[in-house]
Amino acid sequence: QVQLVESGGGTVQAGGSLRLSCVASGRTFSSYAMGWFRQAPGKERQFVAAINYNGANTRYADSVKVRFTISRDNAKNTVYLQMNSLRPEDTAVYYCARRSVWGPTIEEVPGTQQHYDYWGQGTQVTVSS
Q1: For 64-91, how does the pLDDT look when each residue is reduced to its tens digit (9 = 90+)?
Q2: Using an 8 Å Cβ cutoff, are 48 and 81 in contact?
Q3: What is the pLDDT of residues 49-61, one digit of tens each?
Q4: Backbone φ, ψ for residue 112 (5° rounding)
Q5: β-pairing, 10-13 with 123-128?
Q6: For residues 7 and 46, what is the distance between their CA atoms, to the nearest angstrom?
Q7: Which of 16, 49, 120, 121 has the fewest Cβ atoms within 10 Å of its own Cβ atom?
């Protein structure tokens, strides 16, 4: 069983920065792509960013491009989301997730939830104006 534990959320003023971390259990972390999603109150969960198994390929939602950076450290079983220039509309619970298939695939960094099978419990990010 894979466990994903997010941390790093909090409250920040608009224009500020936060760095989220997600630590995965197990020895196969380096074989799987990872993704970040978020869910604001009353809204559906949406894609934020994804990174392939070796960090060579990334994908971002248009709303966070340039401002957010996803990265990973396979030696630490950890994926990160660096969030800069935060806006009130970035307020949400942020979840990390593991891709459901391992290794290189045709679609290495999918942006839809059905391609991910394990999810963390989420970490709250609140951006005040």
Answers
A1: 999 999 999 999 999 999 999 999 999 9
A2: yes
A3: 999 999 999 999 9
A4: -120, 145
A5: parallel
A6: 19
A7: 121
